[in-house]
Input
Amino acid sequence: MWLNEINYFSSALNSDFIEVGVPVEGSAREAFSIVLYNSAGTVINTISSAASTSGNGLQFVKFEGLELPDDGLGVALVRADGFVRQFLSFGTVGQISAVAGPANGLTSTFVTVQDTNPTRGLGLTGTAAGPDGWNWSANVATIAGGKRNPGQTHTPTSAPGVEVFGGSGNNTMVGSTVSDILSGEGGADTLFGLAGSDTLNGGEGNDLLVGGAGADVINGGNGSDTASYISSVSGVTINLVSGVHLGDAAGDTFSSIENFRLTASNDVFTMSDDGIIGSVNLVEGDDTFNGGAAADRVLGGLGNDTINGGGGADNLNGQVGNDTINGGGGVDTIRGELGNDTLNGDADNDTIYGGAGDDTLSGGTENDRLYGNEDRDILNGDAGADLLVGGTGNDDLFGGEGNDSLFGEAGSDLFVGGAGDDVMVTTTDGEVDTFVWNPNSFEGLDTINGFELGMDVLDFGSMENVYEISETARWTEIELTNGTVIRVLGVTEVDLFGAPS
Output
């Protein structure tokens, strides 16, 4: 037991306090009481605490509502049998020699730092297993007391368990190999449970909670909190539907968790229909993610991942690797990024970006937007009025059903509008683009813009499939025998087919 924090310079009346740190030693701690006396032996206050079975760790007890002298004083921490654990003096009083009371004949240890901020106080700070390794600091920013001081990190030794409470600062807490209770309180805290069935409470702030092995209770509290398994040496399975998890996640329970960060191995994550506010980071390995009915945000990381969005407006990013991503229901945004990816929008109006690599993009049943970007991509609009943009490689663009817009951009591209009234645009010179129609199937009224004479190719089987050719000031119109009409902007019949013989 030790004096942990003293606020004696408060500007408000009766708002000073003295805080005592209480160790929790062994596998349990008996009930205790701390009594505050003045120099005349009068009891000012008594604080009692029930027994604890939480194991080794810390608890902080605060005597508040005091009015201590602004120039400081001496404080003795005395055991019930009269043994003086500590005798400190602080402020401008200097070192004190006691002439009465339990500390009679003892000389105080003078705390040389001075409290000069009326909203703060003197407090122990440092990184050690206990107070012997901590030092007194001025203007410690724990106004309320009863909590761990900012900059006060507890690194326990091997013990039957640890109970650690943080303060208002950004704390890093490391548990033991058995069952611990780590509470971050305020600030952006990092909590490592290690082995054992731990309880991790993030409290306020954006916290990182690493349970480790064992059946852990992981409670983020307020803020945007992350449950992480990045320290695990093998993959985990997390199923938020069944609550049955495997690997280091086995037996874990989660509350107020906005984000998950998985391992560098092969993981499986199944989202509940309620979803989470933040994201799931698959990190590394060949991972599988199965989304629920809510909107999911997934980062694939490294490895060849399979990501199924499920319902909801999902944001799915494969990142690095040859990924397979299925958006499912909802208006999804899908990014393949690096690697040869297979990206499927499925239902609703989706936006799909291929990224670097030879990607295959399929829109699905609604009005989708597909962007191939680099390398050789295959874009399938499927049903709906789709927008297909090939990018810089030699791409194959298939509009499918619906009135589609196909933009080849750079490279030698293949355009197949499919059913519906399609617009096909080629924007580069010196590349051979090919436009293909099925002569046996009616495909609507199609328009070609940017056709380059002597380079680009119209493929509708043969001239036998041409029913009629006509010309206006803006285009040449080709009607096929199946009823399909093709308008080629900016060229004449002679440009396309030569002068009649």
About this structure: The longest helix spans residues 493-497. The chain is about 0% helix and 35% strand.
